[in-house]
Write a structure and sequence with these properties.
Oligomer: single chain
Strand content: 15-25%
CATH class of the largest domain: Alpha Beta
CATH topology of the largest domain: Beta-Lactamase
Strand order of the largest sheet: 2-1-5-4-3
Largest sheet: 5 strands, antiparallel
Radius of gyration: 37 Å
CATH architecture of the largest domain: 2-Layer Sandwich
Structural class: alpha+beta
Shape: elongated
CATH superfamily of the largest domain: PAS domain
């Protein structure tokens, strides 16, 4: 039988989803049932204690005047509370004074009051301690009857707890049904996730390993007929291999020519050796970078499958898996965008775009990050805002980058506001925050690629410094401009994107 770490990554990912989902559902169900069981008993105890206090107060006069019938009538008021099975009033000496019984056929209360918990059998002349106890499936509530500081007797109410047991059985059936359905959904989701994500990455890593070990540049990763990050990564990787294959062929031709001329052969041979070294380093680095997020996922998945982890460690494992996947996706997306921008291969799908609607989608996409940081998000978009001509996906990317940047550099409890306006034929979008701000000397460089304010900020907040550069390039490709404003460090910042309104719109 294979060990967990020897299973394919797709199988491990599916099993991890099932195990984590099962543990989470089981824990949540157990906690909910336990809470309901305790809260139901506590609520019944509070209700009966209140009723006991009222009945005891009303029964005091009946005991004083030795009127058992009046006391029994007072106890009859408890018939409105269905769980109450019986109630009895005992005198101060412990003798039975009056009885209420919902089911006359049931056993009647004892003729004398048994000592309350903590009392010895000979202490009935001492006022019993008010309190509650469980007798089988009955909840027993004892309440002293006191008049002007003198104990006249004791009220004992017994309530049936069978309703709580019925609730428990119903909750168990519901929890089991939800558990089975959730595991089925988790299994389908895990299988789909394995096919969509892990299989292409494993194929890519296998090809990179084969190229590195055997130097066979004719190998290619199976192409993906889709336009997401994985499809673009596979396409870029295959293009790189084609370039390396061509370069390798050129190096072989150069080596053949070096055999004819000794002096040139020495120089070209050194160049070829250096090129081969750089090629091997590049392939090793690429293979490492492809495997690094997978290794993190595989490592934490193995620990989760082994079980026995504390809840805090389980949560950290899930967060690490999610963080590695998201970090890889964002890194690949930014690098590919910059590569396409620099090479002039980034094309826009231009159409009329409602920036107000697009801003709402961008706000929704970052709301979870804002809530996690307790940051207040606000959108101000006037009605009737003119449309612009542009690529909706790229314009949303501009909004998302600006909002994400503002949230990243805004402290907990801060505010981020997006404001849309129209003036002089230009639709403006401003993203303002009250966060870390920008130093005056760094403000002119804020939109340059790979530029960060300082190294500590880079380590604290992460990123490659590409987000604002992408914003500037995409804005300029739409015929617009972007500017940054800040009063200084700790004074917050504002980024304003201006785009020309579409022809035929606006005032």
């Amino acid at each position: 039988m294979k060990r967990a770490r020897d299973l394919p990554i797709g199988t491990r990912l599916t099993l991890t989803l099932l195990v984590v989902s099962g543990i989470a559902l089981a824990t949540a169900s157990a906690g909910f049932i336990a809470y309901d069981r305790v809260s139901t008993a506590a609520a019944m105890e509070r209700r009966l204690a209140g009723e006991a206090e009222i009945v005891g107060f009303n029964a005091a006069s009946a005991i004083l005047f030795r009127d058992p019938e009046s006391a029994a009538t007072t106890l009859g008021a408890l018939s409105a509370d269905l769980p109450v099975a019986s109630a009895a009033i005992y005198t101060a000496g412990g003798d039975l004074f009056a009885v209420y019984q919902r089911d006359p056929a049931a056993a009647r209360p004892a003729p004398r009051l048994a000592p309350s918990p903590g009392q010895s059998p000979g202490q009935n002349d001492v006022a019993p301690t008010a309190g509650n106890e469980i007798e089988g499936r009955l909840l027993v509530v004892r309440e002293p009857i006191v008049f002007e500081g003198t104990r006249l007797g004791t009220l004992v109410i017994r309530a049936d707890l069978s309703e709580r047991e019925q609730r428990l059985r119903r909750y168990l059936v519901i929890a089991a049904t939800v558990f089975v359905v959730a595991l089925g959904v988790g299994l389908l989701g895990g299988l789909g996730l394995s096919r969509v994500i892990t299989r292409p990455l494993l194929q890519l890593a296998e090809v990179a390993r084969g190229v590195e070990e055997r130097g066979d540049f004719t190998r290619r990763a199976p192409p993906l007929d889709r336009g997401d990050e994985l499809g673009l990564l596979v396409s870029a990787f295959n293009s790189m291999l084609s370039g390396l294959q061509q370069r390798d062929r050129q190096l072989r031709d150069a080596q053949a020519e070096l055999e004819q001329r000794l002096e040139e052969r020495t120089q070209l041979y050194q160049q070829a050796e250096e090129a081969n070294r750089l090629k091997d380093e590049f392939l090793a680095t690429l293979s490492h970078e492809l495997r690094t997020p997978l290794n993190a996922i595989v490592g934490w998945t193995a620990l989760l499958l082994q079980g026995g982890l504390e809840p805090e460690v389980q949560a950290r494992a899930i967060a690490t898996i999610d963080r590695n996947a998201r970090a890889q996706a964002k890194l690949v997306e930014d690098v590919l965008d910059v590569s396409r921008i620099v090479s002039g291969k980034l094309a826009l799908k231009v159409q009329r775009v409602d920036l107000g609607a697009l801003a709402g989608l961008a706000i929704d996409s970052v709301s979870h990050a804002a809530v996690a940081r307790q940051i207040t998000l606000a959108l101000h978009a006037p009605p009737g805002l003119p449309a612009v001509n542009g690529d909706p996906d790229r314009l949303q990317q501009v909004m998302w980058n600006l909002l994400s940047n503002a949230i990243k550099f805004t402290p907990t409890g801060g505010h981020v506001t997006m404001t849309l306006s129209f003036a002089r034929g230009q639709v403006e979008m401003e993203v303002r925050d009250d966060g870390a701000g920008i130093a005056h000397e760094f403000l002119p460089h804020v939109f340059e690629r790979f530029r960060q304010a300082d190294a500590s900020s880079t380590r604290t907040h992460g990123g490659l410094g590409l987000g604002l550069a992408i914003v500037r390039h995409l804005t300029e490709m739409h015929g617009g401009t972007v500017r940054a404003e800040s009063a200084g460090v700790g004074q917050g910042a504002a980024f304003t994107v201006s785009l020309p309104a579409a022809a035929g719109t606006g005032a």
